[in-house]
Here is the input.
Amino acid sequence: MTKSGSADPVLLVENLTVRFQAPVVEVIAVDHASFGVFPGEVVGVLGESGSGKTTLGSAILGLLPPGGSITGGSIRFAGRELNGLNERELQAIRGAAISTIFQEPRIALNPVMRVGVQVAEVIRAHRAWNSSKCRDEALAMLTEVRLDAEKIYDAFPHELSGGQCQRVAIAQALACRPQVVIADEPTSSLDTTVQADILTLLSELKERRHIAFLLITHNPAILAKFADRILVMHSGKIVEQGLATEVLGRPSHPYTKSLLNSRGQMVHSARASS
Ligand SMILES: Nc1ncnc2c1ncn2[C@@H]1O[C@H](COP(=O)(O)OP(=O)(O)OP(=O)(O)O)[C@@H](O)[C@H]1O
Ligand SMILES: [Mg+2]
Here is the structure.
């Protein structure tokens, strides 16, 4: 049981292995990864650049780049096996039951489309609703991410700040009421004060909607504040996992220790201010 009181993980990954075919060497980007994510919890994925964090998230979303493939293991979402589903079946799940927030909101948004319409389009793709209902729902989502919805709806991305763009991207990700959201470095393109606002917003949304987050970051200070549990990745392997307080406070794997030592000051200051 978790603090959420739920016995069943909404996402259960077992022995997941992802390889990239390269001309010279084959890369094992994710190596027999196993973990569960329970409803309403934030699971942090921590590791250095190249450790396999993004590949793990992309594999769960069925969005591996060319050359990458799942070569073993399983990904069960709400009891259903995702590994092996065809693209049409994955599209029905992606953006709806499992959605994602990317690092760079301006790249994630279409520069020539009004942002409100972009949120409404996600809703229309997954719901059999007329356009006025999709618009109303998009306005409600924009309000929920604390934007002035009526004002923002007709704006283009270049008219908004980076933080506002990320709020729009969050509204898109949450528009179809996902059970799991994969957020890959969702704040690393933003300046520090905006980062804290966005992470606080994600935390509120998690509580209100009982969403499970997989929060991917190389920054332990973020996880000290926002993660319930942490997976530590190194060379594609999950070398340690446990409660955030345990992993950050009493790391058991030498890699986690060295990772935290190199960033020790930041973790300490994040805890002190929380
Ligand atoms: N499109 C690709 N083609 C070939 N190899 C890739 C590709 N994407 C990732 N890899 C390799 O897979 C491994 C894991 O990369 P990944 O991008 O998942 O790491 P990461 O932990 O997200 O790093 P970062 O913190 O820099 O975002 C690395 O060895 C990387 O070189
Ligand atoms: Mg990455």
Q: What stands out?
A: The chain has twelve helices and ten strands. The chain has two domains: 1-97+180-274, 101-177. Residues 60 and 75 are 7 Å apart (CA to CA). The pocket of magnesium ion (ligand 2) is lined by residues 53-54 (CB under 6 Å).
